[in-house]
Write a structure and sequence with these properties.
The complex is a heterodimer. Chain A is mainly alpha-helical. Chain A has ten helices and two strands; from the N terminus they run αααααββααααα. Chain A has a two-stranded antiparallel sheet with strand order 1-2. In chain A, a hairpin with a 2-residue loop joins strand 1 and strand 2. The radius of gyration of chain A is 24 Å and the shape is flat. The N terminus of chain A is likely disordered. In chain B, a hairpin with a 2-residue loop joins strand 4 and strand 5. The model of chain B has no long low-confidence stretch (mean pLDDT 89). Classes of the chains: A mainly alpha, B alpha/beta. At the A-B interface, helix 8 and helix 9 of A face helix 2, helix 3, helix 4 and helix 5 of B.
Chain lengths: 266, 279
């Protein structure tokens, strides 16, 4: 069961969105997020929502899959909604004791909720439609210009790549250690939270030891294969912007322009 | 004679933490490895065979003595990458030597480090994966493969760097019998293609395939010769705590029974052939 684990939340597919250059997708996502903070009225949100809807439709990722990703933030969403609706002063619509709902509060609460939902759906589209490895590659290329001011772009990307590679290995290792300890009578299931947490310590210690051993082996193997950091390193997969990437950038600019004009007008 | 590796009076010491003592893992060893040859180094745990392997491509630097790999001194920092490209290395644990979560990206890791052009990397990766019969797994994640398959990917990763020599440091120690025989036949193929092979192992049956067997014990070379010569010397094998290869023992027993088994027979296939043709 531990072998079937999926990394990140990549939704395999072959749509145009999936095949876009990761750099374009990362920038588009950042732009979309910035956009959501520029927008100050509901028409702007409607435009953003329609655009996001189009992207989702083209990507063929089922909507239910995306909405499932919103579940973990439901509590945060309700919390901000409640704060906004009760805390903002203005024209009182309803009052009970110290609790009051104002027209401005209601508007702001709905506004923030839409913003948060769009923000999460938009950014999850990036991870749903991009393989984790292309994502790290994209981040490396985008950060490359920052190397001059000392940002270790290559190292960051290499660490993410290795992490992706070794998550399943470490999970297997954990599984092995747990089974070995269960075979000798360890109990991980019963007891309260503190007892359960305590039971994990005997797993964590050998797991750390083995993680360090793996790191040592891997470092030696990488050195033997002439790894010497990011300088003078070439890549098998070159990232070249294709026709569809230019179209995507163009559409992004149009979208940007529309939103900016819209916020000025209304 | 054209030697690809020349070891001159190699001594390697490391510091053992518990008692702050210098331990001599290798004590004044001199060896020449001929270009294109297949050499097996055997010895029990702690005999210094693994340390020797790591000295051959500059992962460890000799305490005393010199090692030349294709003319490059392993102590010379300017040529360390030439040394490592010339003498590739495959390690014991197949899990801990793969870098990427996609098979073909992992094979490309070495050539990428060498700064080779993307088109050429593509060609090398495809060729290397075909060489180890893993072409159909190119897009798979390593953790979904068996130990033997992972080890084949590790070999492809080294082959893609086009080394002249490959050092295998107990490549089959963690594999099942099937994976073990797969890896051994790939090693044979690589040797036939002209790559110098140095196989570090503690399996006698694997060492039998080599042209030359070096037995190491406590940092010394105990014996050095063809498999026939080495295995004929029972005293030395006992001293090194090694067992004779099974077929060799079978041959000795048959000889005691008055059947004239030629002494060059040491592998299973040879023995089967001999018995089938025996009149």
């Amino acid at each position: 069961m531990i072998r079937d684990i999926t990394l990140g939340q990549y939704f395999p597919g072959d749509s145009v969105i999936h095949r876009l250059d990761p750099r374009v997708k990362i920038i588009a996502t950042l732009m979309f997020i910035i956009e959501l903070f520029i927008v100050d009225n509901f028409i702007g949100f409607a435009i953003a929502a329609i655009c996001l809807g189009l992207v989702i439709a083209v990507s063929k990722v089922p909507l239910s899959f995306i909405l499932r990703g919103l579940k973990p933030i439901l509590i945060i969403l309700m919390f901000t909604f409640a704060l906004n609706i009760f805390m903002v002063d203005g024209r009182i619509l309803w009052q009970w004791g110290f609790l009051k709902i104002t027209a401005e509060g209601l508007r702001l609460a709905v506004f923030m909720a839409i913003r948060l939902v769009l923000l999460l759906m938009g950014s999850s589209m990036l991870t749903l439609c991009t393989r984790p490895l292309s994502l790290t590659d994209g981040i490396e290329r985008l950060l490359a210009p920052l190397k001059k001011i000392g940002v270790p772009a290559h190292e960051i990307a290499m660490m993410m790549t290795i992490a992706l590679r070794f998550i399943p290995t470490l999970l297997e290792e954990t599984d092995k250690i747990m089974k070995a300890q269960q075979a000798r009578g360890a109990d991980f299931e019963t007891g309260n939270l503190i007892q359960k947490a305590k039971a994990l310590i005997p797993i964590l210690v050998p797991l750390f030891v083995s993680a360090f051993r793996i790191a040592q082996d891997l470092a030696m193997a990488m050195e033997a294969r002439c790894y010497r950091g990011g300088d003078n390193r070439t890549r098998m997969h070159e990232m070249k912007l294709k026709g569809r990437d230019y179209v995507a950038v163009l559409l992004l600019i149009v979208f940007l322009a529309v939103i900016i004009i819209e916020t000025r007008l209304f | 004679m054209d030697n690809i590796i020349s070891i001159q009076n190699l001594t390697f010491e490391y510091l053992r933490d518990e008692d702050q003592m210098n331990i001599k893992a290798i004590d004044n060893v001199s060896l020449e490895i001929e270009r294109g040859s297949f050499t097996a180094v055997i010895g029990k745990n702690g005999s210094g065979k693994s340390t020797l392997a790591k000295n051959l491509n500059g992962l460890l630097i000799p305490t005393e003595g010199v090692i030349y790999v294709d003319g490059f001194d392993t102590r010379d920092d300017n040529h360390i990458w030439d040394v490592r490209q010339t003498a590739g290395m495959v390690f014991q644990n197949p899990d801990n030597q793969l870098v990427s979560a996609i098979v073909e990206d992992d094979v490309a890791f070495g050539p990428e480090n060498l700064g080779i052009e993307p088109d050429e990397i593509r060609r090398r990766v495809d060729k290397a994966l075909e060489d180890v019969n893993m072409g159909q797994f190119r897009k798979k994640a390593p953790h979904l493969l068996s130990g033997g398959q992972k080890q084949r990917i590790a070999i492809a990763g080294v082959v893609a760097m086009k080394p002249k020599c490959i050092i295998f440091d107990e490549p089959t120690a963690m594999l099942d019998p099937k994976g073990r025989s797969e890896i051994m036949s790939i090693i044979d193929e690589l040797h036939e293609e002209g790559i110098t092979v140095i196989l570090i192992t503690h399996f006698m049956e694997e060492a039998v395939r080599a042209q030359r067997v070096i037995i190491m014990n406590e940092g010394h070379v105990l014996m050095d010769g063809t498999p026939q010569e080495v295995y004929a010397n029972e005293e030395v094998l006992k001293a090194a705590n090694l067992e004779m290869p099974l077929m060799f023992e079978v041959g000795a027993k048959l000889r005691q029974q008055g059947i004239d088994v030629p002494s060059h027979i040491i592998t299973e296939e040879e023995m089967v052939e001999f018995i089938c043709q025996y009149k």
